[in-house]
Amino acid sequence: MIESAGPRIGSMRRSLVERSLRDVHNRLVRARQELAVLDEQLLVFTDTADDARIRSLVSETPLAGHEYASAQRHADAAMGARGRILATIGDLERRQDELLGQLVPEPR
User: Fold this and answer.
1) Quick one: which of 1, 14, 27, 35 has the fewest CB in 10 Å?
2) How many CB atoms lie within 10 A of CB 71?
3) Amino acid 10: pLDDT
4) 105 close to 6: Cβ distance less than 8 angstroms
5) Do 85 and 34 touch, CB atoms closer than 8 A?
6) If phi over 0 gives left and psi between -120 and 50 gives alpha, with beta otherwise, what is residue 44?
7) To which H or E segment does residue 28 belong?
8) Beta-carbon neighbour count of residue 45 at 10 Å?
9) Which helix (H) or strand (E) holds 107?
10) pTM above 0.70, yes or no
């Protein structure tokens, strides 16, 4: 029998790592789907804010200024949510790499 190039993990431990890996993968898929939806929404929010800004500049009325400020707040909130989702995706990718590293022995 040929020995593998690194420490072997027990079958119970391997099962736990594989289960964790599936969980992380599923969470990563959901986060990427959420990011795709948010990116579409962000386009609408930024377009709406840009339109409101132009109307505000042209009309120079307080109401137009308030509409612009409100639209911009929505766009800013979506950008903040996007940043949080990207951070979550990064964390999940790092965790996935760690788990994969536990399954694959390092070369000698």
Assistant:
1) 1
2) 21
3) 76
4) yes
5) yes
6) alpha
7) helix 11-59
8) 20
9) none
10) yes
Q: Which two tokens stand for residue 20?
A: 């964790």
Which residue from 47, 77, 73 is spatially nearest to 55, judged by alpha carbons? 47
pLDDT per residue as tens digits for the range 4-61: 444 556 788 889 999 999 999 999 999 999 999 999 999 999 999 999 999 999 998 9
Q: What integer pLDDT is reported at residue 106 of this predicted model? A: 63
- pLDDT surpasses 50 at 2: no
Rounded to whole angstroms, how far apart are CA atoms 61 and 12? Answer: 68
What is the end-to-end Cα distance of the chain in Å, rounded? 18
Q: Which residues contact 41 (CB under 8 A, 6 or more apart)?
A: 78
What residue type is 18 in one-letter code?
E
Provide the 3-class DSSP secondary structure of residue 61: coil
**Each residue of 79-93: pLDDT tens digit?**
999 999 999 999 999
Round to whole Å and give the CA distance between 7 and 82. 40
Structure tokens at 92: 């999940």
